[in-house]
Amino acid sequence: TREENPYLWNIVENLTITSGLPMPRLYIVDDPAPNAFATGTSPQKASVAFTSGLIEMLENEELEGVAAHELSHVKNFDSRYLLLVATMVGTLTLMGDLVFRFGLGRGRSKDSHPAILIIGLVFLILSPIIGELIKLAVSRSREYLADASGSLLTRYPEGLASALEKISTSGQKMRTASTATAHLWIASPFGPKQKFAGLFATHPPVEERVKRLRDMANAR
């Protein structure tokens, strides 16, 4: 509530007024690792969370940049978008299972279809991998979009750029890091050294994000 943390409340409230968004539910996660996330299928049902470590580490303009980034996820309906992508990925896997079952026939060897069985088996093996790559690629693209949208909201890209640099160099891993929710956070909850790199990364490289933000600042 405003009474519990007027500093954070006022930053988020000012941004919601500027963006025309309703005030989201605010949460503070008791964790020294600097991070933040937003969730909710619509602006009216949105929640935004900041770790205690993030609030302590960042200056006012930097925290405002992170808050604007998270509110941009809300305004861009990213949670709903990623839910749709996850549903499509699940459908892809289900299709592979159906093709495989069709290839097996009705359990009798004379009803089986060897060619379809092989195709179904390949599809069954590859579809989860392909689906996960698609989901991660979409997640990375939405991070870039939220960076740009948030910077337009604050009109100060350097605030978010500086915040991302501090977060990435803190070297801290979140206490409850999980691969299931890693894509929600503004930075990888596993710290600077991610478990997977490249195509399997949940976030774009911080260096590239900072470069794009500073290019925006220089273009003004």
Provide structural commentary.
With 220 residues, the chain is mainly α. It has helices at residues 6-19, 52-57, 60-75, 78-104, 114-154, 157-169, 206-219, and strands spanning 25-29, 36-39, 47-51. The longest helix is centred in the middle third of the chain and has 41 residues, at 114-154. The mean pLDDT is 84.
Strand numbers in spatial order across the main sheet: 1-3-2
Taking the alpha carbons of the first and last residues, their distance comes to: 36 Å
Q: Name the overall outline.
A: elongated
- Average pLDDT, rounded to a whole number, is 84
Unreliable spans: none
| Proportion of residues in helical segments | 55-70%
Find the structural class using helix and strand composition. mainly alpha
Q: SSE order in H/E notation?
A: HEEEHHHHHH
Secondary structure layout plus pairing:
Elements: H1 6-19, E1 25-29, E2 36-39, E3 47-51, H2 52-57, H3 60-75, H4 78-104, H5 114-154, H6 157-169, H7 206-219
Parallel strand pairs: 1-3
Antiparallel strand pairs: 2-3
Summarize the structure.
It contains seven helices and three strands.
Question: Features of this protein?
Answer:
220 residues, 3-stranded mixed beta sheet, 60% helix
